[in-house]
Amino acid sequence: MNGEWGLPSDTQDTFVSFDRVQKSYDGETLVVKDLNLDIGKGEFLTMLGPSGSGKTTCLMMLAGFETATHGEILLDSRPINNIPPHKRGIGMVFQNYALFPHMTVAENLSFPLEVRKIGKSEREAKVMRALDMVQMGDFGGRRPAQLSGGQQQRIALARALVFEPELVLMDEPLGALDKQLRETLQFEITKLAHRLGITVVYVTHDQTEALTMSDRVAVFDDGRIQQLDAPDVLYEQPQNSFVAQFIGENNTLTGRVAEMHADMCVVRLDDGELIDAVPVNVSAVGDRTQVSIRPERVEMNKDRLAPDAHTLKAEVLEFIYMGDIYRTRLRVAGHENFVVKTRNAPDQPRLKPGERIEIGWHPQDCRALDA
Ligand SMILES: Nc1ncnc2c1ncn2[C@@H]1O[C@H](COP(=O)(O)OP(=O)(O)O)[C@@H](O)[C@H]1O
Ligand SMILES: [Mg+2]
Predict the structure, then answer these.
(1) How far is the CA of 49 from the centre of ligand 2 (A)?
(2) N or C end: fewer C-beta atoms under 10 angstroms in the chain?
(3) How far is the CA of 60 from the centre of ligand 2 (A)?
(4) Gap between the Cα atoms of 198 and 320, Å rounded
(5) Are 98 and 156 contacting, i.e. CB atoms less than 8 angstroms apart?
(6) 47, 57, 95: which to mutate for ligand 1, most atoms within 8 A of CB?
(7) pLDDT digit string, tens, across residues 100-126
(8) CA-CA distance, 244 to 236, in Å (whole number)?
(9) Ligand 2 centre distance from Cα of residue 52 (Å)
(10) Whose Cα sits closest to atom 20 in ligand 1?
(11) ABC transporter domain: from which residue to which, for each copy (predicted)?
């Protein structure tokens, strides 16, 4: 898709604009291909995508460490090239903290303020406030080596915020931390960003992180935005097979469009069975398609489906008890990795391998995408 990714019409003013931006490092291959992206003031926007998809390159161009090969980046309606770096008001946080090891925590925080020629007493007040903001008020005298990874990352965050930037760029800032700490900081960062009203451009390859933290997520692949939407729209209405597979768990069945109606189509799966789907990325009878259905939207109780709904026969291959949910792996239409997730509740059966069942879904939960 070669999209123009503007802001939803009902939201805030545009603060950052990528306008037809392309980037090549070697003069041959484009690692960013025609990026058109508007980011709103105060928005938390995440660039999500596999390694090598061009996320860091976009961030580096925005920070001014790399220049676009083509196109323009605007900050608050001004071309970024015309704004000297110290006036860009951009804070940055990277995965590897990048604190100065020979300075104390307080000196690390004071540094960006000295660069901006802020007086001593004001510096001290701002440093204290920034440390308190990340709950590290008592650590000003320590050196980075005397802190845990999570504490260092809190300090890096405080240092990015201490000069009250309007825009903060974060590149996989939590990548080096363990799961529990990551989740705590995910929550703290979003809370802080919204409280301070700063615009955040956040880069991650972790889809859960992207979904839980962001106002909108731009899914990158191969130097292009594949889809840009709020987390729930991205998850529930993927626009193509890449996004459906990359975000969350997804079941895929392959076939051809057999009937095409205005907002519904019938797909003949490769084994001959028929199912109903929403035509998203198919246009005519005969088109190859991968249909996408989320594991928690599969219905194993026929009574909950429309009387005329198409259903499929399935064989239970594996049943996993996971506490809060049951995870059942099925053989469906020749596919052996079809997964169904059900709540652990008294009305949900605990199935056994070898059992034969019938499954179906509400047609609006099943999307016919590109093959
Ligand atoms: N400084 C560089 N010089 C040459 N190629 C680079 C440089 N930085 C990144 N690349 C290449 O550009 C592509 C995109 O990289 P990057 O923006 O780092 O992706 P991501 O952050 O999504 O992993 C990759 O193919 C990478 O190898
Ligand atoms: Mg990167």
Answers:
(1) 9
(2) N
(3) 10
(4) 43
(5) yes
(6) 57
(7) 999 999 999 999 899 889 999 999 999
(8) 9
(9) 7
(10) 52
(11) 16-247
Tokens of 171: 């590149």
* pLDDT at 366 > cutoff 90: yes
- Domain chopping of the chain, boundaries: 14-241, 249-369
Q: Which atom of ligand 1 is nearest to the CA of 25?
A: 4
| Nearest ligand, CA 23 | 1
Which DSSP string corresponds to 160-221? HHTT--SEEEEESTTTTS-HHHHHHHHHHHHHHHHHHT-EEEEEES-HHHHHHH-SEEEEEE
pLDDT at 2 over 50: no
The residue whose CB lies within 8 Å of the most ligand 1 atoms, and thus the one to mutate among 18, 22, 24, 31, is 31
Give the distance between the most distant pair of CA atoms in the chain: 76
Structure confidence at residue 371 as a pLDDT band (50, 70, 90):
very high
Q: Which fold has domain 14-241?
A: Rossmann fold (3.40.50)
Q: How confident is the model at residue 250 (pLDDT cuts 50, 70, 90)?
A: very high
167-171 and 199-204 as β-strands: parallel, antiparallel, unpaired? parallel
Cα-to-chain-centroid distance, residue 26: 28
Joined together, the tokens standing for residue 45 give 């926007």
Nearest CA to ligand 1 atom 5: 25
197-210: average pLDDT: 95
